[in-house]
Specification:
This protein has about 325 residues and is α/β, with parallel strands linked by helices. It folds into two domains: about 1-115 and about 240-319, FAD/NAD(P)-binding domain; about 135-235, 3-Layer(bba) Sandwich (FAD/NAD(P)-binding domain), CATH 3.50.50. It is built from seven helices and 19 strands. It has helices at about 15-25, 60-75, 135-140, 155-165, 185-190, 285-310, 310-319, and strands at about 1-5, 10, 30-35, 80, 85-90, 95-100, 100-105, 110, 115, 135, 150, 170-175, 195-200, 205-210, 215-220, 225-230, 235, 240-245, 275. The strands form five sheets. It has a five-stranded parallel sheet with strand order 4-3-2-8-19, covered by helices on one side. It has a five-stranded parallel sheet with strand order 10-17-11-12-13, with helices on one face. Strand 14 and strand 15 (about 215-220) form a beta hairpin. The chain is elongated, with a radius of gyration of 22 Å.
Amino acid sequence: MSTGSYETVIIGGGPAGLTAGLYLCRSRIKTVLLEKQMTGGQAVNSPLIENYPGFPDGIDGMELTSLFKLQADNFGLETRNFEAVTSVDVTNGFKTLKTDKEEINTPAIIVATGRSPKKMGIPGEDKYMGKGISYCATCDGPLFKDKRVMVIGGGDSAVEEALHLTNFAGKVIIVHRRDELRASGYLQERALSEPKLEIIWNSEIREVRGDSVVEEAIIENNVTGETSEVPVSGIFFYVGNTPNSSFLSEMVELDKPGYITTDENLETSVPGIFAAGDVRSNPFKQVVIATGEGALAAMSAQRYLEKTGARAAYKGDAK
């Protein structure tokens, strides 16, 4: 296993991580970004982001994050995809990260690992993964042209993706456990006026059935207790997320759901480790917030390097 050294290591390549990388590299701080998959984060799954400043007509999430990466690349950010951090060890303030490929030494870390879609654990969910069950309408929507599909959830993500699916599917059914959607007013208006979209209220999915692929969902009304078999070819789950913080659970302070807590400078309970974006404990999860936090985390990390003398040490090594 090889060993490398950097002034700052960014873990996670979504909007927060890419913005942090841009800020650090513009300041000539030797930085590497590690991403266990491809850069972009969950934002790449959004077919249209309408509330990011500078794009009055909205922009596709994949295109937006590609621009983030291009800008960071232009300032020399080193990015390594498909390299997951498995553990972090801190000794006398110095950090050693272990990945599935190497060890990396650094005085400062920015954790921007985001969060992952939550599974429901119902019968058939794992069995039909990739065979009709999906967590990404943007990725898999075109596979269901003119078919009946179902979306589980009632928040912004669920309604956004349901509306996106109407571009392909013949019928889209939202199943929501309450009697009103939790999505923003604008999205609710669009959903309620969309002729291809049907909403089943006060209901929850209990099972997925089929032969080799999804063929039907078992839906239970949580008011009457009645169950029904709803024929569908695809089911998309949007029932919440889990923070990607487990590799740090024994090191930094987390809130009850597992999000990383920080101070106003985005520093965690461990000096020199910062958190930004959706993995951080904050009430709102938006791309624009993640980019702002990425910038703040980068500037805080730079100040930490300078205050502790680590920045000066690295400058000396570079001579």
